[in-house]
Fold each of these.
Amino acid sequence: MSTMRLTLKVWRQASPEAKGEFRTYPVEADEHMSFLEMLDVVNEGLIAAGEEPIAFDHDCREGICGSCGMMINGKAHGPRAATTACQLHMRSFKDGDHILIEPFRASAFPVIRDLVVDRSSFDRIIQAGGYVSVGTGAAPDGNAILVPKEMAERAMDAAQCIGCGACVAACPNASAMLFTAAKVSHLAMLPQGQPERHRRVLGMVEQMDSEGFGGCTNFAECEAACPKQISIENIARMNRDFLKASLREREETGAGAVSN
Amino acid sequence: MTGAPDVPMQLDDRIPDGPLAEKWDRHRSALRLVSPANKRKYHVIVVGSGLAGASAAASLAELGYNVSCFCFQDSPRRAHSIAAQGGINAAKNYQNDGDSVERLFRDTIKGGDFRSREGNVYRLSQVSADIIDQCVAQGVPFAREYGGLLANRSFGGAQVSRTFYARGQTGQQLLIGAYQALERQIARGAVQMYTRHEMLDLVVIDGRARGIVVRDMVTGAIESHAGHDVVLATGGYGNVFYLSTNAKGCNVTAAFRAWKRGAGFANPSFTQIHPTCIPVSGEYQSKLTLMSESLRNDGRVWVPLKQDDTRLPRDIPDAERDYFLERKYPSFGNLAPRDIASRAAKEACDEGRGVGRGGLGVYLDFATAISRLGEDVIRERYANLFEMYERITGENPYQTPMRIYPAVHYTMGGTWVDYNLMSTLPGLHVIGEANFSDHGANRLGASALMQGLADGYFVLPYTIGDYIAGTKFAEVDTSHSAFAEAEQQVRDRTARLLAINGSRSVDSFHKELGKLMWDHCGMARSREGLELALRRIPELRAEFWADVRVLGSADTLNQSLEKAGRVADFMEFAELMCRDALEREESCGGHFRVEYQTPDGEALRNDDEFAHVAVWEYRGEGVPAKRNVEQLEFEFVQLATRSYK
Amino acid sequence: MNAIIGLWRSTIGKKIAMSLTGLLLVGFLISHMISNVLVFVDGASLDLYGAWLRGFGPLLWIPRLILLGAVVIHIAAAYQLSALARAGRGGSYRDHDRPASTYASRTMRWGGVLILVFIIFHILHYTVGIIHPDFRVGEVGRNLVRGMESKPVALFYLVSMIALGAHFLHGIWSVFQTLGINHPTWNRWRRGIAIGLTVLVAGGFASIPAAALLGWLR
């Protein structure tokens, strides 16, 4: 077992309105700890010293719920590719390291406290069309819809998105294109998604833009930061669908309208 | 005897009469309906947004009910259903291997060690096929064959291939499907969604559940919500052990508050220990990560024959390895059910043959499968699981065997419900892992997702209408004094937690409680250990209320305060679990009492005295909870010793 | 028409507008570059080309206005997207590591501004001729050579062409992505085409000031 001494610089902000600041905390960590377990250790020390612990979102701690997310040394979820902060382990650091921890920053992700940000804009993007309109009970037999294996696999590649927001955090423009494109692509590649394909992309893009995310200028930082390695190929597909849908849309249908 | 007058708890299971295969159809046809025009007038409160909660909220909103849905996470998509890996069972018989509703039913009853209700389980098997259809239509990208048909695999404890899956992320994909259905209803205005809200009390008026009190976790505001029905879909209570595969936020608070308001709690000691988790690496460990059981399809479980063998696994020749599952259970081998596989691993470690740090681990070895099928095939099947293992442990499982150890995973116990999924409190329905109904004393792999979605999509939407249509509701809104009282109690409790300002953190108490429970109410339980735990828990609880340190205030985001409230409830709930374990003097499924075992160490059930559900009733502060009994009737299945040899 | 307005309102639509106007400008630059390198053949060939163009008379304003429109749309979209990006980012990070983006992609905005300044200079220099030391209508080849005699001017041309190259490199690759042309099998061609066109156009143009600086242009 190897112990390492680290110096953390952590963004502390008491409330959405408060002016935040970086505070420095020393910590002793074990190489087998997860990054969040290391923060737990810091927090135990803070509580003992009478300082409020660092607030950070986390839940499953196995890389799938998408709750956790923070900038670790300038990188969303830290230095290891395809790894969420909760699955990042301290063996990725070495004794004596300084680690800078900041919240994900974007106008559409306002800070609530410390490292906790409000990502409800993502839910609203899904509300604008990120679904198949099928009521409970109305489905045909599962095998009545044939899906080529390769398409199912590619849809799955996109559907793996955990909605953590690392794409937005890493993008110099704070664009939510990868998140939106992952959902658009997931459903666009499946037969089930075809009937609403155009209306979906129009509605979701409109919502995405209205949430105050920046536009995509093809930096590809999102793809590099994505813990699920979702490809920007999905963004290209969404662009294509959006262009087609925009040109074909008839005025009376009204993009983004929702019905039961 | 003190407390409430001794009226026995009403435990009518409401299982309809008639042949097993016709019960649900007949019942469904006989259920009362709420007219479409009136549904909008009924407000249903759904607490929780996992598979059960999201599917129920969406389906109820589609029907026309006015729904509010609450979750403590920042988005309904984060509920812990998302972490389920392996798959979802359904009696589709797509593989032509002889599966049927009947067989899934029998497997589930047997897997649950004959401690579940026939009627409920049969219905679960029946609707299982509809779930797959529904999810496919939603766009869940299930694994496919080259011809475009749905693929299946066999899964822990099953001899047919009835498990549908989406890589190792089936729970995620099913939850995203339900979440999308939910978001669609939110967009329509049919569901009002409250994220970052935690339910802290249930409000009962004139004997009916009529609302909840929640805390807005961002502003700290204590709010009341009134409705005609409250649906708890709040998951399991495995975090009473501190270390479990549950998400950090999983808790018993909603169910426990409902218990204190009169909802009976069934079989709290029935917890499932999952055999294939990554072992603990140190004191700082905050949670345990499950490796999908599907790994046991190709992995072989072994420990060294010798004690304290410190050689590297590759240096131990085959003759000096004990493939203990294959040895003990030749017909099921490495696919033995979860409780059996877990206990076998514990035994091997207790004998001093465990591997890894602290000797609490066994090998799960893929070398045979890799040499037979090639690394590419193994990679295709398990790549994401292998990567996850490598990320956590720093070891490459293609080259060296995985180390695994059992961990608390699922709780079969839960709020007691009848066939209509209603608790002993009228107007309180409980679905998914939060109820107790379908898994008996042990849940089969890939059946949790099935049950959560069955309840939410295909059972509750029918049965809730029967309750609403058959009830004359008094006009109630949040101005009723019961809401003010409940709110005040919540505020007082919060204030009390903040005022203690003792010396120990919430986590330190939680860890201590968890260790106590793991040692004495975990994989193997004894009278002596349980009695010790029952002495120690009240002491620990007293220490908690005297010495816990919760900093900050009640009117901001305060994660310590959230945790403190949950741990305070675990401190009480743990006692109920231990009492339940103590009074169930038999071994069945996940409940293994060392006093009740066969000479070769297998569980010894006592059907004469314990073929029943133990339903615990709250009787007031300081008064021991009362154990009531719902006798289980087995009309269609022969009670038999569960054998996987 | 509504579709066009709808497109323009969205961030994706603005990017599509940038792509299409960018492609038009690339097409113009290819032809412009080919005609320019005629200077290496002899001045007279360039003069002939210039005379041919002037032969169109007022009709020449049609392509000129189209090009001007493309430039205006390209810049307007760029300006709006930059403003949206700034607003979207909100506060800035203390540390923001950007491992994936290229130097070319990060310099699009300032590179674009430099190119705009260059275009204005270039038109005043060789089309209008008011900042030319000795501008004579019709003597295109001679004007070109004389205009390059000033070392600072030639150097400015050279630097501008490097900026144009960087702009091309990311811009052309970006066109594929924005117009939805992305397929793993063919993606290596996207980079290849971007590099090829960059070398051809920016290299072709840059050869003229480079030759002037080396004293090879007569």
Amino acid sequence: MESKKMCLGLFTGSVDKLTAAGVVISGAAAMDMKVDIYVLLQGARAFRKDIGDDAGKLQMAENPALKEEFMESLKNLKVKTWVEFFREAKEITDVKIHICGLAGKIWGGEKLDDFIDLADDICGIGAYLSSAEEADINLFI
Amino acid sequence: MTAEELQGLKVTKSVDARGTACPGPLLEAKKAIGTIMPGEIMEVLSADEGTKVDIPKWCTKQGHEYLGTIEESGYFRIFLKKS
């Protein structure tokens, strides 16, 4: 059986939505899906080497006042950080992380090396849409 | 299978995922299934309510046979046979 393919447009740079994306791709990994992630605008900032898991540098997408409660609950429930979710999914299944070139430049990342080691390449919108066209599941977070 | 039949199964691999929330138990199951042979039985222990829905669905998609769930005090024992 050929594995299903998921294409995720990851626009967000918010810690709550990045965590949700991490849970979704973990599920995809458990189901042996092939996952292509296209990291767009705000997402590329979160993927910068000096940001990543540093939640102090990330905002909440929903109700900023709840950030402290959210982070505390994640810790108590032993939920992985968003970067750990992405890393584990990559270890289990074929997950490729593509950084949008324009987004990278906006946040001062010109080269692959400027981003956390999970990023596979820097690409353009054509690559994203080609992948989206072929995917069984398309998500935009 | 009845709870009694499930109790009597010879379990090759027991995965204790009670310390993790979703998607932890599913990922633990995914990692452990590779360590047993087709026809062997695995149980997943989870305190996460969602797992008893997730694992049967996952079995259907992956082709494994879901055998049933026993509800213990504060956690679930979910049984499946590897295809």
